[in-house]
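dumping the sequnces here before i forget
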Amino acid sequence: MKRKQTIGDWIFNIFNVLIMLIVVLATLYPFLNSLAISLNDADDTTRGGVTFYPRVFTLKNYKLIFENPKIYTAYLVTVSRTLIGTLLGLLFTSTLAFGMAHQKLLGRRFYTILCLIPMYFGGGLIPYYFLIRSLGLMNSFWVYIIPSLVGIWNMILMRTYFQGIPIALEESARIDGANYFTVFFKIILPISKPIIATIALFIGVSHWNAWFDANIFITKQELKPMQTVLLQIISEARFAEQLSRTASGLGAGAGVDASNIGKNIKVNVRSITMATMIVTVIPIIMVYPFLQRYFIQGIMIGSLKG
Amino acid sequence: MKTKKLMSILLCLLFVLAIVAGCAKGDGKEQTADTQDNAVETPSEADKDTDSQEEETQDEEIESEDLEPYTFTHYFNYDWWDIKPWGEDEVSKYLSEKFNIHVEFSKPDADPEARLNVMISAGDLPDSIMMDRGTTNENLARLGHLLPLEPFMEKNPNLQENLLEQTIKGLQIDGKLYGIPNWPRKAPTGGNDAWIYNLRLYQDAGSPSLETFEDLYEFAKKIKNEVPTNREGLTTIPMTTDATSDGHRYARAFYRSYGGVLVSWYTVLDGDYVLAFRDPVFKEASLEINKWWREGLIAETQFTDTSEQILEKIVAGRTALLFYDFSLDETNHFRRLLKESFPEDSYELTEPHVFPPAKGLPPEKIYGDYTSTLGWNVTCITTNAEKPERIFDLWSYLLTPEAAILQMYGPQGDYWDELDEDGLPILKKPESELTTEEINRLGLWFWMIPGHSDNVDTVKFAVNAKLPPDKQNWVITNQSERVTPTKWLTDEFENIGVVIDPQSDLGIQRKLIEDHIVAEYPKMIMAGSAEEAERIYDDILKFAEENGIADIEAEYTKKYQENVKLFGTGLTK
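..and the predicted 3d for all of it:
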């Protein structure tokens, strides 16, 4: 039965919509502003006052990014690491989670503790470096994939989800002669789409955004991921500014002259930074709406049954 | 209960295991060190494999003649460094032919300190490394990771010929030279900060004289009272400087006109290196800044604005008086952009003095920017380098006058064909007409490699002076004609900060005091009355004294006086 709307409801609705609009605008504005600056002429940006739309439209900032030959191999590296890393990560994490979800698993507590310890204690960077080096992963593409095959946090989320699936499903399949792999791939996985989509998004985004492993373990330019190369492009644009600042310090002129080093820097740092940001963010934004449905559902289910 | 017991047993087991594993590592330290060394060699061997047969033949002939092709790795210890590939532009092509060398550059993507630490502990250092002078560099040298350069200097005199003796002395660590300086100098040239005025606002204020510091004040007041908006109707700002959240730029600009020399927050008083706040003249200059603030001559957003926000105001022609790095016009184009919008407008350096004197001081008593002969950072050769002398030959060559021409105008036969009677290249067109593509093709940048400040400046100034006046570069002309004469060369302020270890008690006290200054000094500037400003000023000094500034000054003075003995002093005005 529908209640008749009172004046109070009307007022509430109006304010509600207004406040929500303001919130949406406040959230959206920085993004729109970045987009506008990235599409605005760099020299004109220096004059300030660019808000919602570009004043002097140009694609030069993007041209500068995509003219850089490094960017294509870097995109390839990032896309491959995201695809391979997500697929393999899902496979390994979910298999482990499936096992851990079994109450009857022998030594389950021991495994749990084993998993929990690295969540709270890390070995530190230098031991990690030695480990990676002795595994022969330095300057190898697999350094992006192998160390992050299993995410404990993701595993716990998945385990909680699997535990919510009625045990009878698995038991009946077992009676019909299915082995654990069949149960896992044919029965459990197909009905766990929400959690898989969620975890896939987690892993995918972290692979997409990752740069630290490349910083420490990769010195070959051709293996650097996109994030690193985009950072390099920004550094190039910031270079003269940084150099003159670092080198001259607190005015104690060390003799480095901005005019000597920055003469072919043609693009405003802000423009290039904004263009870079847009390039980084767009692919993820495009994937998000397709996964969001699962994403919200998955987290809710996990939290309710956890 | 049972499970709890089981768990505790398991945990105990785990701890025992961990301890055993930990001890095993400790015992096997030497072993790991050995494997480290092996591991260090393996990558280079692996590299050789990939580098095809050339390298193999090189190994065989290593003993005979050392002009074989040689590839080494060079690392920039800066995450913002812009790496250009070696051998793709004309300059590095020329260099790689001349030295038969190939350089593989790399740098950290982020967090250089962590990356370097990892590299040091893993023994994965590159063959040569460019980094800041100071603690980390000294530690590297003392740990034996860097090669002393003296043996190479005996065979190749590039360093001795292009550096002053005091520069080499000043760069030594425990009596040995480990780094080739980047941008060292033998003479003070160039120029950055100067007093600049906006031409249209200056005309609107009736073109007053800007000869003395008091004139600057009168001009700023006139702008405040009589020219509240510029010709476009935007509000004017009587005085601004680049981003300075701590007010240091104001301190430096004002104190200078009062005859002082500010080094960080310190100065020299009767031969002692002390906190500038002890100098009554510094107090007078500081209180003057407060006066300007109280009278609304300084922009209200000065201490919160970023460089970009300030640039926006400058480019809009709203700022009447600036203490600004005019050479930035080459990078952020503040003057060029202004002239594009308003062709009749301009920014010009104050006449006749770049740093107008206050209180009737004679202009020759004013100190311009001092500059050190040591330059900025250093390039060091590590013990990992297979043929360190080849690396030395390349990097040290870049300090020569010949290399200055090469780095600025490219190799002979492209942008220039011959030298004139003064040894300057005869350019085919002015530099300002070079396109970005041409600059990139030729490789006309300095940042890859060490450069020599006055070798570069001398050539740059002379080449610029030969151009017709309308083709001359505003920055270079002002640098050579106006600011270079005010600069002075000294090493007396070098290596003073490093005498105190930041981790020691004194280092912690210093941090406390300097943090306090940085927080309080802007408050002093923004104080509502002269009395309040003076009170805050005195409190800063009091705070410093209570926290042991005297001990810090004693350490600093000791080092400073040693420096003066070694290098002499430029404080003779």
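Chain A is about 70% helix and 0% strand.
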